[in-house]
Every structure is written in structure tokens, then in C-alpha cells.
Amino acid sequence: MSRSRQIEGSHTCSGPEPGHETHLPCGDVRIGNTLILVGAGLLIVGALVKFFPGAFAWFGNLPGDIRIEGENSRVFIPITSMIVVSIVLTLVVNLVAPFFRDR
């Protein structure tokens, strides 16, 4: 007979029988799923960069991106590009997050 415990509010995780050391807590499974999702996202972005190199040509060339070049140094601060990336990632996370919430 397994015991239950409360983790993070109302989510219930099944605990192992006493003496079983192989069960992972619920939080570890969520971290694993998140890492898989992040890895898949990186794989997609990497494939886009490799097979469609012009897809990210806009990055760093938007108005508001700061580029300072001296005689022996170069400074690049992509402020506007990072704002665009932040908005896109926020939209993606808010669209995908409801599918990963507990029921």
C-alpha cells in the first residue's frame, strides 16, 4: 500500500513503500520534463540557424541595438533585439503553459 504526500499546493504525489529507494519525487519528474522541453527548443533553434542562416539576420541589426567600435575594442549591446526575443518567448510560454499544468 503506497502513501501519498502533498507537494506544491494541491498536487498529490505517490510515495514509495517503506524500504523502496528507487522512486523519484514529483519535483524531479517535472524538472526532467522541463529539461526535455528546453532541449527540444534548442534543437529546433539550432536547426533553423543551420539550415536557414538568414532567419536570424535581423538579430542585432534593429534600431536601438547599440554597437560601439573603437580602435582596439568592440562593444555590442542588442537591447531592441533582446526585447523582441523576450516578447516572443513570453508569448510562447503563455501559449504552451496551460498544457503542462496539473489537472
How would you summarize the topology of this molecule?
Blueprint: E1 4-7, E2 11-14, H1 26-51, E3 66-69, E4 74-77, H2 79-96
Antiparallel strand pairs: 1-2, 3-4
- Give start-end ranges of low-pLDDT stretches: 6-11
End-to-end separation in angstroms reads 24 Å
Q: Give the number of helices.
A: 2
For the sheet with most strands, the description reads: 2 strands, antiparallel
Decide which structural class fits the backbone: alpha+beta
Q: In which range does the helix fraction lie?
A: 40-55%
Could you tell me the radius of gyration in angstroms? 22 Å
Q: State the order of secondary-structure elements, H for helix, E for strand.
A: EEHEEH
Strand content: 15-25%
Mean pLDDT comes to 78
Strand order of the largest sheet: 1-2
Count all strands and give the number. 4
Overall spatial form: elongated
Characterization of this structure:
- By secondary structure, this protein is an alpha+beta fold.
- The chain has two helices and four strands.
- The strands form two sheets. Strands 1-2 form a two-stranded antiparallel ribbon. Strands 3-4 form a two-stranded antiparallel sheet.
